[in-house]
Design a protein that fits this description.
The complex is a heterodimer of chains A (about 240) and B (about 110).
Chain A: H1 2-10, H2 13-25, H3 29-46, H4 50-60, H5 63-74, H6 79-90, H7 92-104, H8 109-117, H9 121-133, H10 139-167, H11 180-189, H12 196-211, H13 219-243
Chain B: H1 5-30, H2 37-43, H3 46-60, H4 71-87, H5 90-110
Helix pairs in contact in B: 4-5
Classes of the chains: A mainly alpha (about 240), B mainly alpha (about 110).
């Protein structure tokens, strides 16, 4: 009891929100290490210089799109096609951006710009789950929390790309680290399934995404996500009407 | 790869700017202006609408097995989801899923 009051006196709320974010973001280091290393290795194999590989990772900072672009570059696709495909992979983040508006829209523009730069799957899902669970958070607490989540993963993402470029050796396949990513994403989203509407949305997302898996980079997922959001909203309205 | 250094930098720069603009889009332009109720309702389902669809093909057709269905990875995915829903805790779900993955991988190596 005394320790907790002492803590609140020392730490301002925004600071403790930041550290809560750091704690919740720490497990993603596990995910950043194999994938960033792999990116460094593949980028070097493909013929990118150290500066280009690092420029990619720092400026784009979006794993899936980086891998997609690199794959197409190795195949000597046209520049326009590389850009279109890689940006299509990132379009889901426009949905993330929109769904953060109710929570972060009131933050100063420069803070929203920082969050936009750091808005990738891990930071987004972790933060939105916290915002939903704690509607009483202030806007500055929310910003601090988001930056906290990004703090452990970002340096590892950059640093391990560098290690991949320099060491040129990916983590052996036998470690099955390929599957750490699906496990982490599922672990992030499962606790957010709170109602029948969420179950329906998730089921729609999976079935449409699987049905459209052969569509070009990322576009099937966009359609699946749109259909799933609509499903969630409609089921929610139907449940509200039934409850009345 | 046959691009010149300038072309590679062009790809990197446009991807960087484009990705930032995608992420900034709504958050930057709408700010604290109110959004229609139905849009807010849709947006509440963003995480459960995007992630399951993103992961599903990776679970059913893992790249590591060249797209061949792998019961071990499937079981790990199911365990992760169940533990996540049951405990409502991300960390327990990750640990449970990883433990299932490695335990079953060990087991199938022995058999």
């Amino acid at each position: 009891m005394t320790t907790s009051t002492a803590k609140t006196r020392v730490k301002t709320p925004a600071k403790s929100a930041y550290w809560a974010g750091v704690r919740d973001g720490a497990p993603f280091i596990l995910m950043a290490i194999p994938f960033a290393t792999l990116f460094g290795v593949i980028a070097t194999d493909a013929g990118l210089t150290l500066a280009q590989a690092m420029g990619f990772t720092v400026l784009v900072i979006a794993g899936a799109a980086q891998f997609a672009a690199l794959q197409l570059m190795v195949e000597n696709a046209s520049i326009a096609f590389v850009l279109l495909a890689a940006l299509a992979v990132n379009l889901r983040m426009a949905m993330y951006s929109a769904s953060l508006v109710p929570y972060l829209g009131a933050a100063p523009l420069w803070q929203r710009a920082c969050i936009a730069y750091l808005n990738f799957d891990q930071t987004y899902i972790t933060s939105i789950a916290r915002y939903e669970a704690r509607p009483e958070m202030t806007v500055s607490d929310r910003v601090a929390y988001f930056l906290g989540v990004a703090t452990p993963i970002t340096p590892f993402w950059f640093g391990m790309t560098l290690v991949g470029v320099v060491a040129g050796q990916a983590i052996p396949d036998a470690w099955a680290l390929d599957f750490i990513m699906p496990i982490m994403f599922l672990a992030m989203v499962a606790p957010m399934v709170k109602s029948l509407a969420h179950v329906a949305a998730a089921a729609m997302s999976v079935s449409v995404a699987l049905a459209l898996v052969n569509m070009p980079a990322g576009t099937g997922l966009l359609i699946a996500a749109g259909a799933a959001m609509l499903t969630g909203a409609l089921v929610e309205m139907w449940m509200e009407r039934r409850a009345q | 790869m046959t691009y010149s250094a300038a072309e590679i930098w062009l790809i990197i720069a446009i991807m960087g700017i484009g990705t930032f603009l995608i992420r900034f889009s709504f958050l930057g332009l709408i700010g604290d202006r109110a959004m229609p109720a139905f849009v807010l309702r849709l947006l509440r389902y963003t995480p459960v609408a995007v992630l399951p669809g993103m992961v599903a093909p990776l679970v059913l057709w893992p790249a590591a097995t060249d797209g061949v269905f792998d019961p071990v990875r499937m079981a790990a995915a199911v365990a992760t989801v169940l533990i996540g829903i049951w405990t409502r805790n991300v960390l327990w779900a990750i640990l449970g899923g990883a433990a299932t993955l490695y335990a079953l991988m060990g087991l199938s190596a022995l058999l």
